[in-house]
Amino acid sequence: SLEELQEEYEKEKKLLKELDEKSEILSIEYETVVKEQEAARQKAEEAEKRMNDMLRAATIIQRVWKRYRQQKQSQKDQKGKKGKKGKKGKKGKGKKGGKNR
């Protein structure tokens, strides 16, 4: 009986060693997966931040362009109003036409 117990003990000890080795391997693999997931998460966050920065920049560029166009249109409208008042009755005084032809 003592021999049987010793034999059973050795079997369980061997099984425990195998399970410990498997557990260690799984633990290492788990740590690797966690690190890869963290790296992927950080990369996704950086990509999202870059995208947000580009969207903000595009919005600013569009706003500036819209203001520029509005200012140009406003200047054009103001020149058109001023120019029409002074040009009544003065036909033919452009670069190509006129009295001195």
The dominant shape is rod-shaped
- Give the termini separation: 135 Å
Tell me about the largest β-sheet: none
Mean pLDDT: 88
Count of helical stretches? 1
What is the tally of beta strands? 0
Query: What class would the helix/strand composition place it in?
Result: mainly alpha
Poorly predicted segments: none
Radius of gyration: 42 Å
Question: How much strand?
Answer: under 5%
Q: Roughly how much helix do the residues carry, as a percent range?
A: over 70%
The topology string of helices and strands comes to H
Task: Please provide a written account of the structure.
This protein has 101 residues and is mainly α. It has 1 helix and no strands. The radius of gyration is 42 Å and the shape is rod-shaped.
Write out key terms for the chains shown.
rod-shaped, 101 residues, 84% helix, 0% strand, mainly alpha, single chain, 1 helix
Give a nutshell description of this structure.
The protein has 101 residues and is mostly helical. It is built from one helix and no strands.
Any chance you could write out the topology, listing elements then pairs?
Layout: H1 2-86
